[in-house]
Amino acid sequence: MENTQKKILIVEDEKNIAEILKFNIQTAGYSVKAVYDGQSGLDEALSGGYDLILLDLMLPVMDGFEVCRRVRETLDVPIIILTARAEERDKILGLDLGADDYMTKPFSIDELKSRIKANIRRYSNELVSNKIAETIITVGDITIDCESYLVKKGDSPIELSKKEYELLAFLAKNAGKVYPREELISAVWGYDPTYSDLRTVDVTIARLRKKVADPDSSTNLIQTKHGMGYFIEKN
Ligand code: CA
After folding, report:
1. What is the DSSP letter of 188?
2. Could you tell me the distance, in angstroms and rounded to a whole number, from the CA of residue 56 to the centre of ligand 1?
3. Ligand 1 centre and the CA of 67: distance in Å?
4. 8-state DSSP, 185
5. pTM
6. Domain boundaries defined on the chain
7. How many angstroms separate the alpha carbon of residue 164 from the centre of ligand 1?
8. Which one, 23, 177, 186, 234, has the greatest CB density within 10 A?
9. What is the distance in A from the centroid of ligand 1 to the CA of 83?
10. If you measure from the C-alpha of residue 196 to the centroid of ligand 1, how many angstroms do you get, rounded to a whole number?
11. Contact, 146 vs 110, CB < 8 A?
């Protein structure tokens, strides 16, 4: 079975939810461990060699925001955040936590399974595609080094979240082509656009535009083709 051996960590303090998730994800062929507070989640994440982490936000001892931030300092592992409310999702998007995905409760187990699969697959695809990627891409005054993931504007490095980087690199590699949000969702986030909140793309584009903006120019590096999608012009 394709999913055999993939390890998933669930960090969720509501034990009944954790158990339901654990049961369903195990049934889908994954090896699953559930822990019930943030500190245990962090310890387990750092020592357990997981392929993906499902992380609740409101947790005892250490909250999910802190867990996510600290896992990210050390590990490159997909993290899906489970939020209780839509406002929390907006907070996550605003906070640059470095999570890969989020789901607002209540969500369907089928959708969760599809996201798990997509995020794990995207990480392994990245490992492959990174090896064959062009090393340096230049668009406008932005330089993207695909080996070190360093992005510079002129000579100054720009701090980007993982998703911002991937979105920028994707549009830059494919400069000149207009991408609808649905295509960006599947190319960059790796999941099925029919399940997705396309506003995620708009929010990420807006943050990215701010970071790469040229104060002397009114033209965005990342442009909108009205009603069609986003693109970066070819140099
Ligand atoms: Ca909770």
Report:
1. I
2. 6
3. 13
4. I
5. 0.58
6. 7-123, 128-232
7. 28
8. 186
9. 8
10. 23
11. no
Which residue do the tokens 């969720």 mark? 12
pLDDT by residue for the chain (235 residues), tens only, comes to 444 589 999 999 999 999 999 999 999 999 999 999 999 999 999 988 899 999 999 899 999 989 998 998 888 899 999 988 777 776 776 567 778 888 888 889 999 999 999 999 888 777 666 555 568 888 888 999 888 889 999 899 999 998 999 999 999 988 999 999 998 998 888 877 776 778 889 999 999 999 988 777 777 889 999 989 999 998 7
d(CA 113, CA 168): 27
Q: Are 3 and 29 in contact (CB under 8 A)?
A: yes
Under CATH, to which class is 128-232 assigned? Answer: mainly alpha
Q: Name the superfamily (CATH) of residues 7-123.
A: Response regulator (3.40.50.2300)
* 20 CA from centroid of ligand 1 (Å): 14
Show the tokens assigned to 203: 């929010």
Cα 81 to averaged position of ligand 1 atoms, centre (Å): 11
The residue type of 151 is V
Give the pLDDT score at 165: 94
Angstrom distance (rounded) from CA 67 to CA 143: 32
**DSSP structure class, residue 135:** S
Nearest to 146 by CA among 156, 155, 136, 157: 136
Residue 175 alpha carbon to ligand 1 centre in Å: 42
Helix (H) and strand (E) counts in the chain: 8, 11
- The alpha carbon of 139 and the centre of ligand 1 are apart by a number of angstroms equal to 43
Angle at 167 between CA 201 and CA 171, to 5 degrees: 110
Distance 232 CA to ligand 1 centre (A): 40
